[in-house]
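The protein record passed on below.

***
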Amino acid sequence: MKQSFKEYVAKRFRDIISSETAPDSKHDILVLLGVNDFLDVSEYSANIVDAASFSVDGDASVFDEEDWFGRMFMGLREPKNLYLLSYQQYVYYTAYAPNLTKFKSRVVIVYDNVRSLFPIKKAAYLEKAGAENIETRPETMPIYQAEQVSIDGNAYCSFTAPTECRMVPFFTKALTVESSRKQCDDILEIDEHMYTLDVFLNRAFQDSKEKENPWRKACKGHHPGR
């Protein structure tokens, strides 16, 4: 029986937890970068340090240095075998916390290695054209975002690059793209735009929340490795 995308994701995450935390118990903080979009973490709710901000794409008004940081600091002191943070939480926590060397030695960042753009709400899109049509970074942009772009009326961001932590890619299984003789009215031209594949994958991940197989799409062209 063929494994569904949801089943694959769940098993892959269990394998990562087992491989990263079991051999070395000091790696007890898993940070999810872009993985939240397709991973169901409901069975790990007890491991989430601050549930109220875990799935939020907020700024310093959400991840503030007083109340929010205090909740995170105390949550990380509670005795648990595993702590789960979003990348958004991690970036703001490390911006406020002193003495990060010991903290970062506990961290494993599990990242989505197939996308470079991640969806954000349209209301959160802040990028504006500056002088001579050169885009400038708005001061209010969340510090975990490197860039914001708008494509076909939808808003996306790229994340800043993590440093000084162990990095684990979520997707490691390679599949060969096979041609099909089936008729398809919706064909993706991957060479059309540098972000075409990202837009397709974001749409597929969104569809995966409602369907068993999000990949039923005919594609032609190729995408150079990132």
